[in-house]
């Protein structure tokens, strides 16, 4: 009976090699040998939405990231104080550094600080209505604002716009309170494909100071183009 000769470059299956293969297999199963990493799936870009009619006609004198305390006023805004934060990243998870993040929303009475808002509820002069922040080296932004309340015909939401950091155009979207009863009736939220709505729905959790905490991640296309 002929003995098979190893091909050029082939390592013969010696008893020592078979024993090594068995040991290596056991180590790999035990997690003691490095295993090739599987590339992570790209993140889904945040859906774009309308800016609505109440983006500020002019920026307020106080346009920082604390909407609850207006410069020159002693009282703070009415409503449930919320620490809102998050990151702006591309689809591979890399942070966008130095992006300008803007938010605007109605006050606790359901009034936008905009001359064309037809609502007749009193205006909360202690609420800034609009604010901006710049992302840090990790793509993070922070705001101090109020938990959003319903606006006539709309579920509670906060408007967002992201500018700069190499983006070809601003990303404009809206953030919603996860689990709110009015979400199912909101005509703008219902326009978002059902499998993407969860990207705009944010849980509000009790904060250590008695207010709320909310985290909203914003994902832009990895090339810098917004979807």
Q: SSE layout and pairings?
A:
Elements lengths: L14 H15 L51 E10 L9 E5 L25 E5 L5 E7 L10 E7 L7 E7 L9 H4 L10 E2 L1 E3 L5 E4 L2 E3 L7
Parallel strand pairs: 1-9, 1-10, 6-7
Antiparallel strand pairs: 1-4, 2-3, 2-5, 5-6, 8-9
- Total beta strand runs: 10
Q: How are helices and strands ordered from N to C?
A: HEEEEEEHEEEE
CATH topology (fold) name of one domain: Protocatechuate 3,4-Dioxygenase, subunit A
CATH architecture of one domain: Sandwich
Low-confidence stretches: 2-14, 27-31
* Largest beta-sheet details: 5 strands, mixed
> What's the CATH class label of one domain?
Mainly Beta
Approximate shape: globular
What is the percentage of strand-forming residues?
A: 15-25%
Broad structural category = mainly beta
Number of helices: 2
């Amino acid at each position: 009976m002929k003995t098979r000769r190893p091909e050029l470059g082939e390592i013969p299956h010696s008893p020592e090699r078979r024993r090594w293969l068995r040991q290596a297999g056991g180590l790999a199963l035990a997690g003691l040998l490095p295993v090739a990493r599987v590339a992570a799936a790209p993140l889904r870009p945040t859906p774009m939405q309308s800016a609505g009619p109440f983006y500020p006609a002019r920026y307020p004198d106080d346009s920082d990231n604390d909407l609850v305390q207006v410069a020159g006023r002693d009282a703070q805004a009415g409503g449930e104080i919320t620490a809102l934060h998050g990151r702006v990243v591309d689809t591979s998870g890399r942070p966008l550094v130095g992006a300008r993040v803007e938010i605007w929303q109605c006050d606790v009475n359901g009034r936008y600080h905009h001359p064309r808002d037809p609502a007749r509820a009193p205006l909360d002069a202690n609420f800034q209505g609009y604010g901006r922040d710049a992302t840090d080296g990790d793509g993070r932004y922070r705001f101090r604002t109020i938990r959003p309340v319903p606006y006539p015909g709309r579920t509670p939401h906060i408007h967002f716009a992201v500018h700069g950091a190499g983006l070809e155009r601003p990303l404009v979207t809206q953030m919603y309170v996860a689990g709110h009863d009015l979400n199912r009736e909101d005509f703008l939220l219902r326009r978002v494909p059902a499998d993407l709505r969860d990207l705009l729905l944010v849980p509000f959790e009790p904060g250590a100071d008695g207010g709320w905490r909310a985290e909203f991640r914003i994902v832009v296309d990895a090339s810098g183009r917004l979807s």
